[in-house]
Amino acid sequence: MAVNIDTFLSLLKKEVKDYQVPVVDLIAVQTKDPFRVLVATILSARTKDEVTAKASERLFAKAGSIQKLAKLDEKQLQKLIFPVGFYKNKARYLAALPAVLTRDFAAKVPESMDALLTLPGVGRKTANLVLAQAFAIPAICVDTHVHRIMNIWGYVDTSNPLQTEMALREKLPQKYWIPVNSLLVAFGQGTCRPIGPHCDRCLLVEDCPQIGVTPRKLKKKSAKGNVQRLVSWNVNGLRAAYKKGFMESLREMAPDVLGLQEIKAMKEQLPEALQDLQGYNGYFYSAQRKGYSGVAIYAKKKAIRVIEGIGDARFDDEGRVLTLEFDSFYFVNCYFPNAKGDLSRLDFKHDFNVMLQNFSEDLAKTKSVVVCGDYNVAHKEIDLANPKQNVKNAGFTPEERSWMDNFIAAGWIDSFREKNKSPEQYSWWSYRSRARDRNIGWRLDYHCVDGNSVQKIIDVEILQGIHGSDHCPVVLDFLE
Ligand code: SF4
């Protein structure tokens, strides 16, 4: 079935109008400066837009022109652009760039494909993007999303981006050459995602041939008995998640109780829609330090009792634990401390873990307990993509894993592993090097239940198709 490209692209234009504008397009519109467009494009390869935007800002504050860039050495550049993907290579390209531009192009960014390809760090994709965005010259930049989606639609039948670019130059009307990249990048990041595309809510689903696609499946809540859908999600900033489609994710997940970690805001700093979320009772426990840590819970039913913290100011000042008591169970929502890259918070984390365990065990004397949240530890080798390389790293140290061993040995049940023994089930991915697209991740988010409540674990799922944070939500359907 041949798709009607005019219809598809005009529908997409409406669909993505509220999506984030790709960072290079934004820099082109804001600065109209070919040099900045070129540099931002080099930085953006294999890097998330948020990371590129921040790195570009830091770099342009020091080097907004070819002449100023020439004054920075490779080491300084590395420091400024870290953590973009392949930052060492990119720093080397940027250090070499001013000399080549000055020697061969009179200190100007050239306006032709052949000339651009002679610059350090510039391949065809970068050159096309610079031509299109900096000079408005018809050029087709073929990002991985463009290549992927054009093949899903059957508009081309190609095996790599270069073939796709050539095929599109033959058949795609020229009026679409410049906009097609940002349209499909936004669409590929938001709806037609590489893993589990959201076909269930895609406005093209009637006519899309979906070639080679496995759409995501959202599980329906079990109809058995009175099941509560308990969701845990480290949102890495609730205000940021709100801007990235939190409300839509909420509708899709339909939780009865939603525990959020790392909200990084006081209640009054949140948009009104989140301060008073329709259909839910909101409970907030923020850190004293602004913009740091903090947890919140949205619950359809009103809690009988709310317990803030675990009774130790070292942890409670950081807004790490919020507990709601319901008729038949306690919902303990936790943001476990991170041991930090230099492991300087390992002891702090261990003290927290022990206190939290004592606190939860006290609660379990009276009714069921679900301890959910970002545990900041991958328990076993199966719970991260690269266990060997991470044995000394925060989140997989022997000390952190050993506490988790003891916790489980004390009778707590990791509900996910109770139901699902498969590998590659991760809930967190680094923002670097497109780790999420490649599923190089860690399982850091858990619902653990007390040993007497194991029969109440009905279903579990990691919602890898839900974006908006570097963690994805995890779900436990729990019998009340
Ligand atoms: S229907 Fe699915 S595969 Fe087709 S464009 Fe939409 S999200 Fe992508």
Terminus-to-terminus distance: 49 Å
> What is the class of the largest domain in the CATH system?
Alpha Beta
Overall 3D geometry?
A: globular
> Can you tell me the CATH architecture of the largest domain?
4-Layer Sandwich
Give the strand tally. Answer: 14
What is the CATH homologous superfamily assignment of the largest domain? Endonuclease/exonuclease/phosphatase
Class inferred from helices and paired strands: alpha+beta
How are the strands of the biggest sheet laid out side by side? Answer: 3-4-2-1-14-13
Helix content: 25-40%
Largest beta-sheet characterization: 6 strands, mixed
Count, helices: 19
- Tell me, rounded to a whole number, the average pLDDT: 93
Task: Briefly note the CATH topology name of the largest domain.
Answer: Deoxyribonuclease I, Chain A
Low-pLDDT runs of 5+ residues are none
Q: What is the strand content?
A: 5-15%
Bound molecules: iron/sulfur cluster
Radius of gyration over C-alpha positions, nearest whole angstrom = 25 Å
Number of domains: 2
